[in-house]
Amino acid sequence: METLTAFFFLFLTLGFILIFSLSTKPQEKTQTKPSSNPTSYPLIGSILSFNKNRHRLLQWYTDLLRLSPSQTITVDLLFNRRTIVTANPENVEHILKTNFSNFPKGKPFTDLLGDLLGGGIFNSDGELWSSQRKLASHEFTMRSLKEFTFEILREEVENRLVPVLSSAADYDGGRTVDLQEILKRFAFDIVCKVSLGWDPDCLDLTRPVPALVEAFDVAAAISARRATEPVHAVWKLKRLLNVGSERRLREAIKTVHVSVSEIIRAKKKSLALGGDVCDKKDLLSRFLAAGHGEEAVRDSVISFIMAGRDTTSAAMTWLFWLLSENVNVEDKILEEVRNKEALGFEDLREMSYTKACLCEAMRLYPPVAWDSKHAANDDVLPDGTRVRKGDKVTYFPYGMGRMEKVWGQDWDEFKPNRWFEEKPSTGPVLKSVSSFKFPVFQAGPRVCIGKEMAFTQMKYVVGSVLSRFEIIPVSKNRPVFVPLLTAHMAGGLKVKIKRREH
Ligand code: HEM
Ligand SMILES: *[C@@H]1O[C@H](CO)[C@@H](O)[C@H](O)[C@H]1NC(C)=O
């Protein structure tokens, strides 16, 4: 049976390659059919124009969405399911909230990450998802988790991040460091300590990262690349034959699973022996205490690591770059953290200007550039776009942040002030902005569970770093935004670090 399937896929693949090699210079005009749906941009019924643009999909989709009267397009790809991409806040509300149950992640998505994430919260739907969500939401509202996380954050910043940057600043003539890499490793330490109560200690750039960290990177990258395969049968075939990237993926996943299982068993032992207080505060201990089985707990914590690792680092990397181009904005952040040696939990609550800067950076460079659901049944979006059962429905934070219709004519300016409104009694206060207009953390029942934790982390880091150091990018060129599963800056952010004179 397996061989038969393999042959079938092989046949499909060969046919596909044939179509490609026969078609010279794709002509976009002949590929565009008039739409039967007045509210969407004409169906781009072509795998050819898709392929021509697949290396600049973000820009392509954004341009098309601007042309569409309701910021919604439908992309039809040969051999692939239809994709509806929307940057329309009303549609987003419908998908993520009003008709939530009709728009699960769906098997085509969960297949991509299923080998790595199993049925963990990030990669499940229905009952499997909602039971994990309930438990996790409960823990995330607990004061004890917030305090535990803050303590981890403080230690990691004061004892690791600041010393790493100090040593770069002290280096004669200034050493160039990759700030994105530093922030990634920082975020990985934090998310592992919070989720597993395990310290990978990977911020020291002179040492190689632990095997688990390396394996996680490889597994996440290869899983994400599956999604960019124009025909999914190709990666499925490679997996079946255990060759190429799929073989490397299998090995990396095995390393992740074995390492995490070891950590779980050690934790169980320590808990059984009474453990010390710290042994009971991390998510792993909390999930074990709730009586979940070993494999379910493993999948759950891996999901948390996956969801919490590269997002905050991406947001902060872009903000640090934007600040280097907007000195007046940086000065205002400095005003907010002036005279504060170590930031306290209460100080963070007051850093609304820093928060506005983070939102503004994520509007232009969202850590999750797009995110897809799959329609369980036929439906109609508020703008009239028809959805067929099985369609892939994508909401697109990157495009939304760049729509004149959503943010006004000055959408391409970095303006943290747009997040404030004047109140006669109190002066400027943070505006409440609809999460459907700004779905950077998703929205509705499945909104990012780590949102508050993420802001705490980012404010603390941005404040602590800027009050001590000047960050000076080495290159004057505009960095390139690369959207994988989470987005990052191509080639990192190479900077010189200088101590700030007070
Ligand atoms: C700037 C930082 C962050 C951004 C922009 C962000 C964004 C998102 C987005 C867009 C989703 C929805 C993804 C999807 O359903 O496909 C999500 C889900 C999630 N995030 Fe975050 N996230 C951030 C930080 C974090 C952190 C620090 C944690 C945890 C420690 C975290 C934990 C989660 C979890 C567990 C989910 C899955 C929730 C569910 O499916 O019910 N996130 N996040
Ligand atoms: C939600 O989706 C279902 C299909 O599952 C559809 O029949 C129904 O009309 C939709 N509800 C709303 C409020 O649009």
Q: Which residues form runs of ≥5 with pLDDT under 50?
A: 1-44
User: Could you estimate the helical fraction of the residues in percent?
Assistant: 40-55%
What is the helix tally? Answer: 21
CATH class type: Mainly Alpha
Biggest sheet statistics: 5 strands, mixed
CATH architectural label: Orthogonal Bundle
The N- to C-terminal Cα distance equals 72 Å
Number of domains: 1
CATH topology: Cytochrome p450
Proportion of residues in β-strands: 5-15%
- Biggest sheet strand line-up: 1-2-3-8-5
Name the CATH superfamily assignment: Cytochrome P450
3D shape: globular
Hetero groups in this structure are: protoporphyrin IX containing FE, 2-acetamido-2-deoxy-beta-D-glucopyranose
What's the mean pLDDT score? 87
**Based on helices, strands and strand pairing, what is the structural class?**
alpha+beta
Q: Write down the Rg.
A: 23 Å
Task: Please write out the topology.
Elements: H1 2-22, H2 28-31, E1 41-44, H3 47-53, H4 57-67, E2 72-75, E3 83-86, H5 89-98, H6 107-117, H7 126-141, H8 143-170, E4 176-178, H9 179-196, H10 211-226, H11 232-241, H12 244-272, H13 283-289, H14 294-309, H15 311-325, H16 327-337, H17 345-349, H18 352-364, E5 371-374, E6 379-380, E7 386-387, E8 392-395, H19 397-400, H20 404-407, E9 420-423, E10 427-430, H21 451-468, E11 469-473, E12 481-483, E13 487-489, E14 494-499
Parallel strand pairs: 1-2, 3-8
Antiparallel strand pairs: 2-3, 4-14, 5-8, 6-7, 9-10, 11-14, 12-13
The protein binds protoporphyrin IX containing FE and 2-acetamido-2-deoxy-beta-D-glucopyranose (NAG).
Residues 121-122, 133, 191, 303-304, 307-308, 311-312, 315, 367-368, 371, 440-442, 446, 448-450, 453-454 line the site of protoporphyrin IX containing FE (HEM).
Keywords: Heme, Iron, Membrane, Metal-binding, Monooxygenase, Oxidoreductase, Signal, Transmembrane, Transmembrane helix
Main location: membrane
Membrane topology: Single-pass membrane protein
